[in-house]
Amino acid sequence: MIGDRKVLFSGMQATGNLTLGNYLGALKNWVNIADEYLTFFSVVDLHSITVRQDPAQLRKQARALLTLYIAAGLDPEKNCIYYQSHVSGHAELAWILNCFTYMGELNRMTQFKDKAAKHADNINAGLFTYPVLMAADILLYQADVVPVGKDQLQHLEITRDIAQRFNAIYGDVFTVPVPYVGKAGAKIMSLQDPAKKMSKSDENPNASIYLMDDPDTILRKFKRAVTDSEGQILYREEQPGIKNLIDIYCACAEKTPQETEKEFEGRGYGEFKAAVGEAVVSVLRPLQEEFARLSGEKAYLDGIIKQNGEKAEYYALKTLRKVQRKVGFPERIR
Ligand code: TRP
Q1: In this predicted model, what pLDDT tens digit does every residue of 104-148 receive, in sequence order?
Q2: What is d(CA 283, CA 176) in angstroms, rounded to the nearest whole number?
Q3: What phi and psi, each to the nearest 5 degrees, are found at residue 197?
Q4: Which residues surround ligand 1 with Cβ inside 6 Å?
Q5: What region, left, alpha or beta, does residue 305 occupy, with left being phi > 0 and alpha being psi -120 to 50 degrees?
Q6: Given the residues 28, 115, 221, 243, the one annotated as active site
Q7: Which of 14, 66, 162, 223 is disulfide-compatible with 61, CB 3.0–4.6 A?
Q8: Separation CA 132–CA 47 (nearest Å)
Q9: Is 78 a catalytic residue?
Q10: Binding residues for L-tryptophan
Q11: Residue of the CA atom closest to atom 14 of ligand 1
Q12: Starting from the edge strand earliest in sequence, which strands make up the sheet with 145-147, in order?
């Protein structure tokens, strides 16, 4: 809580091309609930360097992501949209929280195990303590609510454990956050393998719709989407490919699976895939246009970055100073 307002914090990494899954599963959700909270939406670039990045590329993608937050409908006058690396409190609090986190806890993190397996040549300490930095992000702003995907729930759990542990020693310093998992169906799967989540790091470009894909590409990818030989457009586990397409259609056309089954009763997969493609195009087109427009407004964006970075820093410092005092660091002489 800050004053009488509940605080919402979330963040995304600026690496790889964002997909329709990121938009429908996360960003669109943020836009829908942002008004109810005092919000912080961070471009978490400190997290990005746990795997090797090309510096120029990282900088470019970070700016693109920040621009996308705004293009998606988050008003930067009302929502604090900023770069994590512009607020040094994240790293400072992460250090302190590292001293309240056990190796055993971090060893259990499934994302660490996955990433360590994927980047066997660079299993660095940052990759290991990644969840502590994430805890710092959230606790720094006294967040009540954190929208995350299911894959991040374990990190939310450890954040709560760290906050409770710290509070048990020093009194009520941190708000203990709860996760906010968007409504069911928002999890978008790969178009080529509906058992896998749609991912920005998928090697097969046909598996994912990228937010910047042009209409022809989008329609073509849906045409090629893996389905089945049932020949019926029904929303059920036995038809994971079709189920995923229905989910996408529902999210884009604001319909329910039942309405969709009815709408396409007796019609073929080809026709349905084309309709899904069109629905996606009509959602992404305005987003892309707004993104292009904003990208040209350099001075405006720079102003937002400065102003919101300072706003984030103001709130971050409040918590950080309190934590520093609690653990016994000397007062600053002013
Ligand atoms: N780890 C998150 C992810 O990869 C990104 C993230 C970093 C985050 N810090 C956060 C999400 C704090 C929510 C809150 O998806």
Answers
A1: 999 999 999 999 998 899 999 999 999 999 999 999 999 999 999
A2: 36
A3: -70, 145
A4: 9-13, 44, 47, 134, 137-138, 146, 148, 152
A5: alpha
A6: 115
A7: 14
A8: 11
A9: no
A10: 137
A11: 10
A12: 80-83, 38-43, 7-12, 145-147, 178-180
